[in-house]
Give the backbone structure.
Amino acid sequence: MNLFEKEALIAQKAVELENATPEEIIAFAVETFPNITFACSFGAEDVVLVDMLQKISPKTEIFYLDTDFHFKETYETRDRMAERYPGIPFVEVKPEITPEEQAAQFGEELWKSDANACCNIRKVKPLTDILSKYEAWITGIRRDQAPTRANSKKIEYDTKFGLVKFNPIAHWTTEDVWNYIRENDVIYNPLHDQNYPSIGCEQCTRKVMPGEDPRAGRWSGQEKTECGLHK
């Protein structure tokens, strides 16, 4: 099957499964693509999907990008989830260079002088490397998170990384996410209770003020709303 045929098939399945539940999307994903992984950031959407995966396909591999710059609460959430789900196959993916090496090569606080370059080094390149080992991946992106995600399909061909991409909760609202967390007693990052609806690296994430866009706290003051993973 060539790329055109593969994209056509994925587009067809996206239409057929648009009204499917997240659990049905996940079940279809892991059954159709055994060589699949889930990218977890330990945000609200992703802890929901971890819980679903543990109920549907507990052996499916889960990885997280450790940029070395996460909030301590994010690492603590990771550890608490590992305790909740014994044997969870978390895989740590780190950049090729340490923060010290990055500073030596590109200058101190690269995220201030060139945030895109910092994201490329600490997120995009490591993600590209890990995804090259798989034929499909699952993400927690939702359409109402940002204009850049408004047209996300539940199933789509990711031309940037060259594999099939599943977005099981693309149609969910923020309230849907939190209803699931409450109803299933899912562990979540406590920063969400402190006006951090979207959590990235500590240096590039701030609290969101009342009335602001949920992603206004990411790269505040810059013309940037995505790290490059989902564009």
